[in-house]
Amino acid sequence: MILTNDHDFPQTPASMEGVTATLASSPTALSSSQRQVPSIHLHPLTGSGAFYPKTIPLPLGNRVVVGRSQAGDTEDGTNGLFPCQWMSRNHALIWSGQDGKVLIRDTRSSNGTWINGSRLSAKGEKSERFTLQCHDILEFGEGQDGVPSIKAEVFDDPTLCIACKTLPVSINSPLVPSLKRNRTLSGGGRTSPKQGLRHRLSVSFSPHVHVPGRNHSGNESDETTAGPGRSRLLPDGTVLDDKALPKTPRMERPSSITSFTTVKTIQDNFEAEFSLLDIGMANQPSGSDDHELKTAPLVTREALDLGVGEHIKQYGLLGQVAAVYSKSKSERFRDPRIYVNTNAPMSTVVCGVQGSGKSHTVGVLLENMLLPPDPRFGQTQKPLSGLVLHYGEGSATTRTPCEAAHIALCTDSSVTPPPVRVYVSPASLNTMKRVYAPLGSGVVVEPLYFSEEELDAQAFLSIMAVSGGSDSAPLYMQVILNILRQLGENYTYTEFIRQLDEHKQNFNSAQLAGLEQRMALLKSFLEPPTQANSAVATIGTSTNRRASVMSTTSVSPPSRRSSAPRFAEGQLTVIDLSDPFIDPASAAGLFDIVLRLFIRADVGTGKVCVVDEAHKYLSTEGGKGATSELTKSLLSLIRQQRHLGMRIIISTQEPTVLPPVLIDLCSCLILHRFSSKGWYDHLLSHISADMPDDAFAQLVSLKTGQALVVSPACIAAFTPSTPPTTGSSANKKAVAQLSRKYLIIKTRKRLTNDGGASIMVV
């Protein structure tokens, strides 16, 4: 409690005759001086910002400052401090007069003090002194767009005040006489055009506080004398004295000590319930919840400077914001920088035609997540582990490296690029080594092999392109499913193959051909056996026994993957299945196996998975096959990204080939230039942004590197639609979520090489 001595007030209590309210007393005051100390009881009402109930003592001769709390202040139940940004530091004064009246005065607050909807003084001006009366509505501050601040209703009994806590008596309650509901200030007050837009709290007085008619005066003596027979001015001009006022039904008054005990018990119960609530959140701007700040996918520089940086520990520079748009207006940020929150899981869809900057944006996102700390692109404490799924087309002479692998090249000696490991089809190993050779020694190309331990039952279902519950699968697939069900948790690759060989005896030639075709693809990615196992496996009849044994010493086994981990912190792993003998469905099945291995891998940091050129193998035509299995895995991954510490980036030229639910679930949609109205209409039905009529024209006219970004959870600093009433805070911005707005951004330059550059003739 902040108290200021007031020498104008006497230090001894006045007579308590003629009281009109039954109020609690302070036990401390009774025990020490056998006197009752007046106090004011504050409790939240419907529509108010949440705060803990308060019982503030009002000793005679002291004034209680009501205002905004600051760092280091203690917001307890005995002071007038509130965690409300719309209140001034010294907003108002409340004190008890010599005759027991409770008085209030606005002390040049920024956003005003109201009684029954009438403002006590103009902005920046000190008000007269007013007397608080039973059932008055007391309000402090008026927030942005009508955001509530503090609103109070005056009660004449603390037990009634607390008993009504769960169902507050509002100004329109039938318990409040109509005459008192219509009561107005009798001079000097200025009516607010926005009544009911401030915080609410219930107020009662203790001990016996006399509350005669409202009065304000310019001299001190008029305010500290009771003055029986005061008159009141009604809205219609009628003047009534106190004797003509209707009386509120009263409960039997308990003793002051009993009343205090009852009030204290009930108040303790309410404080226990309030301990489970986020007190003060109701009067905070949208997006200011700690969890929303920590998990925001994007954040602007101005928002970081306004305190969001305390919640986001790791972020990378994405680019600059040209403007933020809604259906009715646009706004430009003073500081245009925008960052991607690399510390929190997120899902991003990047789309656009060739040459629009799509691959460049994906490269920027990977740099922010994989490069060591560098002051040029934000704040990085711990690099992530990356996985890129890539499927290309073309012959051996026309294949190109995955563009994401160019992150291993950098002409700036001050930048340490991350190591890149590329896993390719064993049948195309030599070809792919030549393809990636221009990227230098920072890129290591290895064959993609799976060990028997990695090939679980789900891996077989993926590579066989069949759903675990498919009733339309061919007979040999039903046999495989039945074997897998019977093995259950006891599954091993060796036992599965043994039982499959037994059942193959009953297959006809057509079924055997289909089964062998699937098994051949799987075996081509199975890790080669050791030399000893290879010799044993090849021993057959006595005629070839000698040659088989000799193979253990004279024949080298097939190429094997190195002992280096497939996934690691600060490393980018590329699965490139560009092979003329691998169709999109088979590639999707292999990607599904790798994706589950990546999820299970323990890398000691966060993970990012890039689904590159998704339109080539993520098509949902027919809704069946291995492609749908990969889609299910991605959907499950996005739904569980927070629990798995995963960031998913899906890059595609054509957004219509993606399952609509992927767009529905993504936390950030980055749209580079395209000119298809069909694509735009498809996206429009799955995004939350309130797009204006000219949004498609904006999208078509985007320059290379520019993008339209839709991210409702993005945190930014916006100019209030209704500016504050004080000149000192006229330019102050509020942190809020992007919600239904959208951004036009320009991605930053890359620190590493960009592999998506166009090849020109001249």
TrEMBL record:
List keywords of the entry alphabetically.
DNA-binding
Q: Record's Pfam families?
A: FHA
Keyword check for Mitochondrion, yes or no. Answer: no
Report the superkingdom from the record: Eukaryota
Residue stretches making up the FHA domain: 64-120
Q: What residue spans carry the Basic and acidic residues bias annotation?
A: 240-253
- Keyword match DNA-binding: yes
Q: For the region Disordered, what residue ranges are annotated?
A: 178-255
Concerning SMART domains, the annotation shows: FHA (SM00240)
Which Gene Ontology MF annotations are present? DNA binding
- Gene3D superfamilies xref list: 2.60.200.20, P-loop containing nucleotide triphosphate hydrolases
**PANTHER family found in the cross-reference section:** HELICASE MJ1565-RELATED (PTHR42957)
Its recorded name reads Putative DNA-binding domain
